[in-house]
Amino acid sequence: MNVVIRVSDETKAKMIDYYKDKRRDKEIPYVVFQAVEEDTVITMYTSGKVMFQGTSADVDADMWRSIDGQSANQEIAQKEKDAKSGKYHNCSSVGSDEVGTGDYFGPIVVTATYVPQEEVPYLEQLGIRDSKKLTDEKILSITKEIAKKIKYRSIILNNTEYNEKYGKDNNMNKIKAILHNKVLYQLMEEEKPKIDYIIVDEFAKENRYYDYIKDSTHIQRGITFMPKAEDQNLAVACASIISRYIFLKEMDKLSDTLHIPLPKGAGPIVDQVGEEIVEKYGSEKLKEVAKLNFLNTGRILKTLII
Ligand code: MG
What is the CATH number of the domain that holds 103? Predict the structure, then answer.
């Protein structure tokens, strides 16, 4: 009987240790080890697959499968514990997040907010979460409530500025770093909040982030960079919501001036609307309403030439 399972790196390490005295000597290409225990031959491949051969292959495979399941569950539980422990949740913090970097039309908005610990229960009760998980309607209704209680600073980089200053540079992470630094520094400098953490949703590694902003006049230090920060920290979640609110309002304004409703994202509908804008106002108009370095521009202009 042959049974093949795939295991996590953690389980792999455990298996290597467990079978170390039962290994066969021979080297086989793409095989980490081959071992024999009782009447089962165990072969671990570099791909992460493990094959069990022999009459009780299923018994051995099941044992490792359950160990692997346990360790995977433990890992998930630990992560949940960390998130729930509230280390970054139930605290006073400044956090920042941005919106619009994946949207062809409209500005980039970056916001930093200050959430004092005593406002955590209020924000929890409002149902603050990552803005991507909330509908536009919900964003519009709760932002006013947040803004009443929470100090924040936002920056809007409109399309003309974006295309002039950054279009050639074409490095979205550098743009983000510069804008995050600006709002964080401003909020920290002007409000002098008492905080436990400054948290940024990680889009670049720390060294890279500081390299991007090395020419900025003021640099905000002491930041904790964290993947999926909006799920763990309310200041980042609020920053994400306020940014989206401002972005939606700016998109409304642009749509009104063009008399064409602008879609979000960068998909096929965006290309269609882009063509409509060029037809109506000429290709120069795109500079004012879109991020020209996106691939959409080429598609929009090519379609029209043909
Ligand atoms: Mg983010």
Answer: 3.30.420.10
Q: What does each C-alpha distance from 153 to 35, 109, 181, 223 come to in angstroms?
A: 61, 11, 11, 17
The rounded Å distance from CA 225 to ligand 1 centre is 11
Q: Which of 85, 106, 135 is the last residue of a domain?
A: 85
Which pLDDT tens digit goes with each residue over 43-96? Answer: 999 888 999 999 999 999 999 998 888 777 776 676 566 666 678 888 999 999
Q: How far is the CA of 274 from the centre of ligand 1 (A)?
A: 26
CB 14 within 8 A of CB 2: no
Q: Is residue 203 part of a domain?
A: yes
Q: How far is the CA of 122 from the centre of ligand 1 (A)?
A: 23
pLDDT of amino acid 171: 84
Mean pLDDT of 249-270: 96
This prediction's pTM: 0.72
Query: How many angstroms is it from 196 CA to the middle of ligand 1?
Result: 20
Q: 3-class DSSP state for residue 209?
A: helix
Query: Distance, CA 3 to ligand 1 centroid (Å)?
Result: 43
CA 191 – ligand 1 centroid, Å: 23
pLDDT of residue 167: 65
C-alpha 201 – ligand 1 centre gap (Å): 5
Looking at the domain assignment, is residue 139 inside a domain?
A: yes
Q: Which pLDDT band holds residue 231 (cuts at 50, 70, 90)?
A: confident
Residue 77 sits in a domain of what CATH number? 3.30.310.10
Q: Is residue 250 part of a domain?
A: no
User: What residue numbers bound the domain in which 101 lies?
Assistant: 93-243
E strand intervals along the chain: 2-6, 31-37, 40-45, 49-53, 93-99, 108-115, 151-157, 197-201, 223-226
Same domain flag for 103 and 154: yes
Q: Residues with Cβ within 5 Å of ion ligand 1?
A: 97, 201
**97 Cα–ligand 1 center, Å:** 5
**Cα 130 to ligand 1 centroid, rounded to whole Å:** 9
Would you give the DSSP letter of residue 147? H
- Are residues 118 and 46 both part of a single domain? no
Mean pLDDT, to the nearest integer, of 212-241?
93
Residue 176 sits in the same domain as residue 267: no
